[in-house]
Specification:
Blueprint lengths: L9 H11 L11 H4 L5 H17 L14 H10 L16 H13 L1 H8 L10
Helix pairs in contact: 4-6
Amino acid sequence: MDGNYLDVSENLWQFLNVWRSSQYAEHRIFIDQICVDQANEQERNHQVSIMGEVFRGAATVHVWLGQATTGSDAAMQLMRRIPCRLADEEPLLPSLDQDELTYLDTARKELKQPLEALFTRPYWSRLWY
């Protein structure tokens, strides 16, 4: 950083290597491990207390769930196929056609373990409220 070396976690190192070669490489990003003085408990606590506000105000939020593992790409593809209805009042499942319901039923059986692995990654234990 600024011509100096900075020790980072293995997880962050993996992310930075992927990000560097992505279409977003030129975008500015906020990384708490770098931007927040981790040795200063008062600053760290303050930053944690405003993280919900920071994320709500962001134009885009990218999440690093870790390196791809066996089945994780398929699990992510499954999640992309499920229509997002969070802002709607209508229930999700009745809005799916028969092909989507058949796909979900098949995927549920085949991707149970990869989905469980994806949702038990460390990221989910550090959500900002």
